[in-house]
Amino acid sequence: xxxxxxxxxxxxxxxxxxxxxxxxxxxxxxxxxxxxxxxxxxxxxxxxxxxxxxxxxxxxxxxxxxxxxxxxxxxxxxxxxxxxxxxxxxxxxxxxxxxxxxxxxxxxxxxxxxxxxxxxxxxxxxxxxxxxxxxxxxxxxxxxxxxxxxxxxxxxxxxxxxxxxxxxxxxxxxxxxxxxxxxxxxxxxxxxxxxxxxxxxxxxxxxxxxxxxxxxxxxxxxxxxxxxxxxxxxxxxxxxxxxxxxxxxxxxxxxxxxxxxxxxxxxxxxxxxxxxxxxxxxxxxxxxxxxxxxxxxxxxxxxxxxxxxxxxxxxxxxxxxxxxxxxxxxxxxxxxxxxxxxxxxxxxxxxxxxxxxxxxxxxxxxxxxxxxxxxxxxxxxxxxxxxxxxxxxxxxxxxxxxxxxxxxxxxxxxxxxxxxxxxxxxxxxxxxxxxxxxxxxxxxxxxxxxxxxxxxxxxxxxxxxxxxxxxxxxxxxxxxxxxxxxxxxxxxxxxxxxxxxxxxxxxxxxxxxxxxxxxxxxxxxxxxxxxxxxxxxxxxxxxxxxxxxxxxxxxxxxxxxxxxxxxxxxxxxxxxxxxxxxxxxxxxxxxxxxxxxxxxxxxxxxxxxxxxxxxxxxxxxxxxxxxxxxxxxxxxxxxxxxxxxxxxxxxxxxxxxxxxxxxxxxxxxxxxxxxxxxxxxxxxxxxxxxxxxxxxxxxxxxxxxxxxxxxxxxxxxxxxxxxxxxxxxxxxxxxxxxxxxxxxxxxxxxxxxxxxxxxxxxxxxxxxxxxxxxxxxxxxxxxxxxxxxxxxxxxxxxxxxxxxxxxxxxxxxxxxxxxxxxxxxxxxxxxxxxxxxxxxxxxxxxx
Length: 847
Hints:
Keywords: Aminopeptidase, Hydrolase, Metal-binding, Metalloprotease, Protease, Signal, Zinc
Number of helices: 26
Protein name: Aminopeptidase N
Largest sheet: 8 strands, mixed
CATH class of the domain at 65-265: Mainly Beta
CATH architecture of the domain at 65-265: Sandwich
Shape: globular
Structural class: alpha+beta
CATH topology of the domain at 65-265: Immunoglobulin-like
Strand content: 15-25%
Helix content: 25-40%
Strand order of the largest sheet: 7-6-10-4-3-13-16-15
Organism: Pontibacter qinzhouensis
Signal peptide: 1-27
Family: Belongs to the peptidase M1 family.
Distance between the termini: 32 Å
């Protein structure tokens, strides 16, 4: 599962700020690829706000039965949004004799249950409470006896109470998209999302990650639809009533939460890895670009297969893009599902690359599907590996700087969460299993695996992963089994590493100082984390020392709260870089002189070290030497460093900035990275100047949408008399970057003539783009009272009441707030609050 949602790089955050307008006591955290709503109300308790919470113990589910095989025959009532199902389950007692079977079945109508012998069935007694189905088997079965039960049922997932998490925003299991065909710009689709325990919303099962089954799925649908499910396609049979039945067979066992179906009018773009089918299911309009979006998949399969020494273990691999998906993506066995943001045009592909999320779900086919966590408490055994695969692929395909940037982003994401939440990565004491889908399981987990790799070395790391996968294939595992795999390979007791990183909360918070005297470099390290909640860490790492242009790396191991290390150095070193491999998960406060930082930028090749130097120098631009460093950084080989330098120089006054204007203009027009061009345009816009109008006009015609959007904002900032006319040329554009840039301007300068434009954009926008658009729409409504019409109220009310993404409901509710002086809006907001089931929003609304 990939829990991250796209926000427009750089521009979306700026647009949201410029649009203003949120009255809620909540914050929207945005990184390059995430949108998370977090409660920021102050905590007045005596313990830190981030202290681990006390919850009851959550063990793995006890296995009374072993679910061996599931056969499903499914039809669909689009009008009622019901699943008409016939399920045939093959089971046997797990160990002890059993005469009763308990299944998960959420919100069903149960029509009949039979114990089958061939084609003959004996009716069975059962009890059903709407969630659990208890079947009396009629006699006692032993672990050597298989039995088959047939359940005729109707599933009504759309009538279930809403649930979910930041990662998975809804848990109805199966979704009908535009079921009646009333939305003209949206295809009719059905798709499923089983994680964590939502497969039981569309078929009866033992909905637990420590269960495994093979399956047959027969889908009866209209002839115009294409279907997808796990395993291989066997046949399609035409039916007398004008429908067809597609048969999909899964011959290798997997967990029930990984079962899937997708139904829609998809174009199937065929690809191949070795002798296996690799297919991409997209809307027909995106068939021409499907291979450019997903085309690295076969190369990834080869890379991961060789790296792990375990070939891709399934019969085929398919990837399908669906509308209104409730997460970023989901790694169903042999068939991953992705949010619609992945569908890009040729022009959009200039700015965006989805390799990370594609690699993430693919790596789950080994870590999560082939070997599965036995309980949600052990979720990092799935998600930390999928997270780390993004680093592995980036390192392989795009180089060390890109991989380092990705890990830096992951560290920032975890540290942001750690401001309000610190829990063990493996946590058996959680309030709700959905809480496990957080930056601890993903971002922290990936960084911890990188530290493990650095500690044991590449050969031992990948040999251990091979051992782990080979030993535990088609089974469920807990963290101890990963530890023992590393111990089996390395011969070393690894309890210390796994205990401090997986089983304890928090992270090291280090204060580092260094001094030089009489041929000795002294380095003092103080662990400042609160040891009531976190351990004193054992940290093997390296210290890089530069003298006369030569680098020496000294290995050290920190094991005490305060520790001093000494190194023989012939003269005052030019730079000292603590954790020179940039691999530590934690915070490092290391004071350095400006001279050391200037040297560090120019001479230390690691991207993290260059980043550290620039960020510590960016508020010292009064120094000519620092400005020279920033100027040099404008030519750095890595795009992010160039952008960092551009954004640092923005703080200069326009007169001071003149010395760098030509170079930044050069970046704005010629940099090979579109995001750098966009940043350079926005920097120039911050300084202003009438001579920049031609540059903005050129930018508005750029091949990159990001650059076009920056050009729009730049031109709007000039106050030119023809601004509205110029911008109106883009009013029919659907690209998110362009729409958000227009919305930022129209929110305050558009006037009533832009009311229809806002309404149209809100109706067709989606995902995080819609959230940011709602911020601008709220500002527009606040400034244009005539726009506060019943249509606007109904539009926002429908989104706030019914949208499947909780943060969209929040954004619409916030936008309604600008009209809260009207009685009908007050009544509507009360109705929204009464209708809302999501605890996150209820907590916010209550304030």
